[in-house]
Amino acid sequence: MRVLLVGGGGREHALAWAISQSRALTRLIAAPGNPGIARHAECVPVKDTALDDLLVLARREHVDLAVVGPELPLALGLADRFRAAGFAVFGPNAAAARLESSKAFAKDLMSRHGIPTARFRIFSDARAARQYCHELGAPIVVKADGLAAGKGAIVCRSLQEADRAVTACMEERAFGDAGLTVVIEEFLEGEEASFFALSDGTSVLPLAAAQDHKTVFDDDAGPNTGGMGAYSPAPVMDAAMQERVMADIVRPTIAAMAKEGTPYAGVLFAGLMVTRDGPRVIEFNCRFGDPECQAIIPRLDQDLLPLLESVAAGRGLPASLRWRP
After folding, report:
1. Domain assignment of residue 108, yes or no
2. Do 14 and 2 form a contact (C-beta atoms < 8 A)?
3. 264-276 pLDDT, tens per residue?
4. What is the tens place of the pLDDT at every residue in 89-107?
5. How far, in Å, are 19, 207, 254, 304, 321 from residue 300 at the CA level?
6. Phi/psi class of residue 173: alpha, beta or left (left: φ > 0; alpha: ψ in -120 to 50)?
7. Would you tell me how many other CB atoms lie within 10 Å of the CB of residue 251?
8. How do beta strands 182-186 and 204-212 pair?
9. Residues 196 and 289 placed together within one structural domain of the fold
10. Is residue 112 part of a domain?
11. In the beta sheet, which residues pair with residue 206?
12. What is the CATH number of the domain that holds 144?
């Protein structure tokens, strides 16, 4: 099988490492890749957002499967373009990827279908957003609606911080167009975890859980980053909690997407807060986490490539997977 891996980060390095070990693989191409990925694949200097160039590359190399790593190409419709051209793709289409590319879309979906998440409201007017912050009180969370490289969720410990966050997002445009609409939600107390599952659009298969280090300074201080390290398994996500997450969050989300006409095929990454009342969704992501992927993929004790191909082809998923401790 000839595989094109789109992306060039640590997540894609972990995927390249795993895919390169498959007996089904005949050639692995990465665009753009990185020096680490070059140990496992042929790297081609094509940006992961250059949709036309990626399609030309896939045609030239007669690719059998494209695996999309980062969120931005998915949001831009790379999977749609490839499928329209007849290629099998691991990754959701742009409509389904709104689960990540629009926090407002994701929160509204959860609200409509009773999927547990923090109380929230959505604003496109900065003055109204600030007023709601003062009504709800601190601590409070201000989130840019669109993609912000993992930095668009601002935990505000005071109303002054909340005012500054709204101003930064909506008026100073710290996140560009991504912050013109904001989601303001209650602050959840608990332990954060990342949970991953595969779906072919109908069936769902749990993968594993991880925890990452988000804040920029020691002792959980400072603003969030996209993640600076991770470990798996996550102690807070024992077998009972994982089944609860599957029953209350993951399966209902996949069912909701199908019911609303946007079936979700790919990996679903649920960012969770495990509270004393149970797991709550902080956000959804539509790809493997970075850095979580680097902690999870080495634990998988079987061939990854057939799983990715099955999801891309909609052929169904196995009942379970083998994992190293």
Report:
1. no
2. no
3. 999 999 999 999 9
4. 999 999 999 999 999 999 9
5. 12, 9, 23, 8, 8
6. left
7. 16
8. unpaired
9. yes
10. no
11. 197
12. 3.30.1490.20
Range of the domain at 25: 2-90
**Does residue 73 fall inside a structural domain?**
yes
Nearest to 159 by CA among 134, 181, 182, 193: 134
Burial state string for 183-222 with b = 16 or more CB within 10 A and e = fewer than 16: bbbeebebebbbbbbbbbbebbbbbbbbbbebeeeeeeee
Query: Per this entry, what is the length of the chain?
Result: 325
Task: Judge contact between 269 and 210, C-beta under 8 A.
Answer: no
Q: Which two tokens stand for residue 255?
A: 């069912």
Q: Cα-flanking dihedrals φ and ψ of residue 31, to 5°?
A: -135, 115
**Total domain count for the chain?**
3
Q: What share of the chain is helix, strand, coil (3-state, %, to 5)?
A: 35, 25, 35
Query: Is residue 307 a contact partner of residue 296, using CB atoms and an 8 Å limit?
Result: no
Residue found under tokens 């993992």: 150
| Residue 251 and residue 197 in contact, taking contact as beta carbons nearer than 8 Å | no
**Is 277 exposed, middle or buried, given 0-12, 13-18 or 19+ CB atoms closer than 10 A?**
exposed
Do 3 and 30 form a contact (C-beta atoms < 8 A)?
Answer: no
147-177, pLDDT tens digit by residue? 998 889 999 999 999 999 999 999 999 999 9
- Which of 89, 117, 121 lies closest to 253, judged by CA? 117
Give CA–CA dist 98/23, Å, rounded. Answer: 34
Mean pLDDT, residues 198-216 taken together: 92
Q: What's the CA gap between 167 and 163, in Å, rounded?
A: 6
| Phi–psi pair at 98, nearest 5 degrees | -60, -20
Which stretches within the chain are classed as H helix? 10-19, 51-60, 71-75, 78-84, 98-101, 103-113, 126-136, 159-166, 239-245, 251-259, 292-296, 305-313
Q: Are residues 210 and 234 in contact, defined by beta-carbon separation less than 8 angstroms?
A: yes
